[in-house]
Amino acid sequence: MNTQLKKIFGIAAIVLLLALAGTATSASAISLPTIQVGMEQADEPDQLSSALQVLLLLTVLTLAPSILIMMTSFTRIVIVLSFLRQAMGTQQTPPTQVLIGLALFLSMFVMTPVWNDVNKNAFEPFMEEKISQTEAFEIAQVPLKRFMLNQIREKDLALFVNLLEGPKPAGRDDVQITALIPAFIISELKTAFQIGFMIYIPFLILDMVVASVLLSMGMLMLPPVLISLPFKLMLFVMVDGWYLTVGSLMRSFN
Questions:
Q1: Which residue intervals of 152-223 are DSSP H helices?
Q2: Residue 209 · residue 93 · CB < 8 Å
Q3: Sign of CA dihedral 131, 49, 27, 153
Q4: Among 64, 62, 54, CA closest to 8
Q5: pLDDT digits (tens, 9 = 90+) for 100-112
Q6: Model confidence over 46-80: pLDDT tens digits?
Q7: Spatial separation of the C-alpha atoms in residues 39 and 41, rounded to whole Å
Q8: Could you give the CA distance from residue 113 to residue 172 in angstroms, rounded to a whole number?
Q9: DSSP 234-253
């Protein structure tokens, strides 16, 4: 179990450092500073540089969950699940913690082939000192970029490629990760909203039918949502809604 945890944390560290490497202004490799606890005056520029690198590393570690989440399938899944809860009108059921947990495990399921590729070709050879740190970063970004490129719309990718300064990439595989990540995020947001709209339609029709029936019966003071909620739950259970929703989400990642 400890070995598996070390591998997971190691892969996450490589992906995080890969995101940092994309935001660097130069193509030089990112050095991993050693952390030493102590307080003394910096007499040389190298000592000050190492201290700043440690400060930067600690700052980025606080943002690591957000960075890793935005580069995976988590965004689309959690937004669709939130739309589903709102469409059903069940307020806080399922609880937010349950939706987040389900989204995390579904994201792990979707991203497992990518993590396995990174672990096999980048992390393990790097830990065995078969490849350098720079080579590990270059190898690790290949499966991650391939996953994001499969989900990105051409329009979104072209937007950030055109805004990016410098020479334009010759093909999709040559796109810098600094342009790839924001294009992937907005593509995921649009896809999630499209799926959420399709989820809303049957529940909206049911609300309209219930409201029309109540209006025809003269029950103007009775909230239609209160009456339609049991019918929504019954419809969702009868069609096995969780199976259909999760299955559609998993198949949406090509």
A1: 154-163, 177-216
A2: no
A3: positive
A4: 64
A5: 889 889 988 888 8
A6: 444 566 667 766 776 777 777 777 888 888 999 99
A7: 7
A8: 21
A9: HHHHHTTHHHHHHHHHHHT-
